[in-house]
Amino acid sequence: MQAATSKPTLRLAQSSDLSAIASCWYYAFFHDDVIGDFMHPHRDQHPHDVYWFHYRGIRERFWDWRHQFIVAVVTEDGKEKVVGAADWRRIGEGGRMRELAWLDPRNLLRPIVSFRNRLSLRLIPNRAADPENVSFLDSHSDRYWTGEHAECWDLHVCGVDPDHQGKGIGKMLISWETGMADQEGVSASVLCGMENRGFYRKSGFTEEILKGDGGGIVLFRSAKT
Questions:
Q1: Which of 20, 107, 135, 177 is positioned for an S-S bond with 82, CB 3.0–4.6 A?
Q2: What domain range is 187 assigned to?
Q3: Whole-prediction pTM
């Protein structure tokens, strides 16, 4: 008997969602041309290591106040389930304005999590990854956002559970923050694989800036005036 499922809704992610986001992205990106093929060519031999890759990154970025995680949830037989998630980050002066005051104790959370991640990697190394490519997304964090795109909302990661794809959830996750970009009068951007290029173009990311290594491509959605 098929589970009764509600329509998807969006909300801000909570710390209790991190494992569910990692699980969602594990399935969403396992066969992706960038996160899958390029960054994790040995994932078939070590699939669980890919989950830990997602979880470590999500756990650390969640406590980076420039990042904003959004989740799409449904209710299945009375239980909430995360079926999609997006990690948006604010680049430029707008990002600096999102940071906490210097003496705020919550600033300790990210370095603590970063230390735990380094320790975790020693105990559970990412055997699925290509060591030279696994930091691809983070290593390209500054080189594209200059000039008219120096102030930008960047879609760092966006993924939808394969069982819930084709239902408009990805578009919902994108529209959440492109609306913020429009309110602030700034650009929006995404670094994606070639196979997802058409999807993001339909969402307004039509300005192609530069192809990255490994098939990645940077698309911008110009500021709305």
A1: 20
A2: 9-221
A3: 0.90
